[in-house]
Each structure stands twice: as structure tokens, then as C-alpha cells.
Amino acid sequence: MSNERFDIYATSDQSLAPGDARCPGPSPQDMLNRDMDTPPDALKQVKYEYLGSDDIPLSRYTDEAFYRSEVEHMWQKTWQWACREEHVTDVGDYYVYDICDDSVIIIRGEDNQIRAFINSCPHRGMQFFGAGEQGQGKQFLRCPFHGMSWHLDGSLRDIPCRWDFPHIEDEKFGLTEIPCDSWGGFVFINLDPDATPLGDYLQVLPEHFAEWPLENRFISLHTQKILPGNWKMCMEGFLEAFHVLATHPEALRTSSWANTQYDIFSPHVTRFFQNLSSGNPHFEKRYSEAELFSFFGHDGKTLPEGMTARQAHADILRENMSKELAVDLSGHSNSEMLDSIEYHLFPNACFFPGVVIPLIYRFRPLGVDRCVHDIMLLQPLPDSGIRPKPAPVEKLEIDEPYTSLASFNQTGLSHVLDQDTENFTRQWAGMKASKKGHQTLGNYQEVRIRHFHDVLDTFLRGGE
Ligand code: FES
Ligand SMILES: [Fe+2]
């Protein structure tokens, strides 16, 4: 394709202020205007700010002391989604969420309230459940070591050989409860007993997702893959589209990669907005709409007269996916159907509100040099309202590709994710071997990474 591109190596315009330069070609806002439909207001918002151009030290990724500081000052203080409400639909259903050295039991009580307790027995510290365990219908929580038990609301139920514990006061011997709340069908926890409310922490996210109720989705696929690098390095590989050029070259004909919009909405919420393109502006050749239609996998000759490839492709998807998912998608704009729209919630979660790419990501550290990447596919609930059971977790080790999973291959995304994750072994090795010791970011396309580090610093200084 090298003869098809013309302007990706164009030099920067020195007359512009830092951060003001943009790639030539239509922006996502231009594309929304061309779509001639009514996208949600959230997609029409643009909010970038220049945050500086200083290099970022690689020790923030590789240094053990920095990692310990994150554990102490950030992971102990931040809201993080632990599971979905559909994992704990009935009384006594539970789900174990693990983060660094902490483990939390999410459980639904007899009063239907979902609570979170530290997964550690008040007697001698035994865990009630193993890492990542989930199950149904517990009537109480019984420690497997000596058999002490607690009610689902965390209050003490029973102590074997009670005669030996006259010093225990029942009301002071409950399970350690931590803040727990829900948004969008996700159950969030915070290890800080004095945490600010989740509603405040989420900032603009609920407002933006008002038209994309994630609670009306179900988990059709859930994977957990171990990645070979620091959690921030791996996560940041998913916060920009700059890498599409070299990492996903086959996507260049349909991705508006360098024209992606990046937004910093509030300290905890950022976004990228990448069009499925009607003509990548970096190609010298101006393709006809019929040719563009063929890039989307259709017969170019079948493009209706006078219609753009983007419109026709969206129409086909609306019709086919409405049938496939048994849900009426006729009210969805072209952008919601086609584009890659990714919101990041500090510190470690990404939510894609679109229909074709309904991804959810979560990155959790496993020490300084490994992490686990959860991917969920959240499909719209069928119009019948009947909620399918959440897909079970499928686990992948470092050397197991997404293409080895039959379930993931059906999504059409496994090859792309393998390309992303195959970068990490060498990036991690290169970060550790670097003599320069810093990374240098683009002012616009990599601003979410810079912003993330700024917010992380706020936590490390004791704020949030
Ligand atoms: S450690 Fe739990 S009952 Fe003894
Ligand atoms: Fe990628």
C-alpha cells in the first residue's frame, strides 16, 4: 500500500501552538456532519487541552518502588469495577475480585443489597474463597479453616466452641465491609472506607452514557489474558490509534486512525473517537464509494445509487444485527453502529458504547512486570428482556493468542488483539533496556497517556 499514502510523514506546521496541529483529512466531527443523522450529544463534544511535551520516565513502569507506591496510594484509594450485577443476581450469589494483594467478596444479601467484604477471616485471616471464584446461593459465609460463620450482611452468625472466645463481642466481630456501589450494571468497590461517593468519582461518565445504558447489556464473551509487561504500558497500548499504521496495517483502508479525536473530559474520564472511514485521507488515490464499499466486505456493484459506502454499510449492519441480536437498532446513528468509541475511566477500565465493537477492558497489575487484561463483550439485551447467563471466563496465558479461542474468533477481533498484545513482550524488554530512560509522546494522539500519568501523580501525592 506504500504507493497509496501521501501525507503521513508531512512535517509539522511550526506556526501552530503546541497541541494545535491535527492530521489533514476529515475529523470525526466532519464525519458526523456528513452522516446526516442524529448522533447522541456526547459524540458531538470535543475537549482537548495541551498538557505539555515533557518526556515521561520509564521508571514509572519498571521501578518496583514506584509500583509499591501505586499499590499504597492509588489502588487503595480508587473506585474500580469488580464484577457485573449479573454475576450476583440472586441472594447469596458471590464473586471474588482480586487486585494486587487485596481480595474482595462481592455478595448479594437477603435484603437484595450488594455488599463488598474483605476476603479474610476475622479469626486467623483465612480467605473464604479463592482468587476469582464465583458461586450461587450462599445462605451464610463459613470459613473453611475452623468453621466460624457470618450472615450475608457481614454480621457474626456462629463461633464453634464459643466457650473459648468469651472476649469476642459479636457486634465488633463482623466482616470488614468496604464501599460498594453500581453504575451501568457494573459493581464497583473502593478499598478506602472514607471514599468519596461513586457518583462523584464517575464525573461526566453517567451523563455521556445516558443514551447508552450498559445495564441493558449482557456478557456474551469474557476473557482474562496474562500480558507480559507493566499494567500501565499494556493499557496505554489501547488508549491511542496512532499504532494502527504499523501494528494493524490491514485496517488502514477502513480506519481513520490519524484523524481520531482525543478528549480529556475530566480528571477520571477520557475518550478516543475513531471513525470507520469513508476513504482514508492518507491514500493518494481517491477511491470511489463503490470501492470503499468493497473495503467493508461488500460487493461494490451493489452499492445503492447516490449512497455513501458508510451509510450503506451502517444500514446493512442495522438490519443484520437487529435480527441477530433480536433487538431493534433502527434508532442507532451511523456513528454508534460503525465507529470505535472508547471511554477510559481512571485508573484501569475502558468502555466502548458502540454496537459493533461493544468492548469492555480492565487491566490489573500482577506485580510490576505482568498484568491481567479482562475483555468483555457486552451485547444489547434482546427486546424480550430475557437476560442470557453471563459467559464464563476463558483464561489465556501469555503465549496463548486470542485466535486460539473459538468464541473470540467469531467476533472478528481476535487477530487485531493478537497484534496488539504481541507488541508487549518487546516493548517491555525495550523499556527495561532503554538507556534513554524516557518516552516521548505525541502532543495530541498520545495525550490520554500523559493525562493518565498526571492523574496518577495526583493520587500518589495523596489526592484523587
Ligand atoms: S481462620 Fe477462619 S475460622 Fe479460623
Ligand atoms: Fe490496536
Shape: globular
**What is the CATH C level class of the largest domain, in words?**
Alpha Beta
Q: What Rg do the Cα atoms give?
A: 24 Å
Q: Biggest sheet, open or closed, and with what strands and sense?
A: 8 strands, mixed
What is the number of domains? 2
Note the beta-strand portion: 15-25%
Order of strands, widest sheet: 14-15-16-17-18-19-13-20
The termini sit apart by 46 Å
Average pLDDT works out at 94
CATH topology of the largest domain: Naphthalene 1,2-dioxygenase Alpha Subunit, Chain A, domain 1
Number of strands: 21
CATH architecture of the largest domain: Alpha-Beta Complex
Overview of this protein structure:
It is a single chain. The protein is 24% helix and 21% strand. With 464 residues, it is of the alpha+beta class. It has an eight-stranded mixed sheet. A five-stranded antiparallel sheet has the order 6-3-4-5-10, with no helix packed on it. The protein has a three-stranded antiparallel sheet with strand order 2-12-11, with no helix packed on it. 36% of the residues are buried. Bound molecules: FE2/S2 (inorganic) cluster (FES) and fe (ii) ion. Fe (ii) ion (FE2) binds at residues 243, 247-248, 420.
